[in-house]
Fold this sequence. Notes:
This protein is of the alpha+beta class. The protein has helices at 23-28, 46-58, and strands at 8-13, 16-19, 37-42, 68-70.
Amino acid sequence: TANEYTSQINVEFKNFKINGKSIMGVLSLGAKKGDTIYVTANGLDEVEAIEALAKLGDEPYKESAPPISIR
C-alpha cells in the first residue's frame, strides 16, 4: 500500500525509524500484536497515504498487525 504514494513514509517502533515503503524494513522492526507503531508521511499525497495505511490496522483479518498511531 505505501508504495502507491509519492510521499515519504516512515514507520517508528521502539526508537527505530525505517522507510515505510520497505517491507523488509517494516518486518525487521519485530512489532507484534499489542505493540504500537507510529507512521508519518511527508509529501503531496501524505493525507491519502496515512488514511490508507491507518485502514490496514483496522482490518479484522489482520490479527497479527499492531495498532497504528498517526502523528
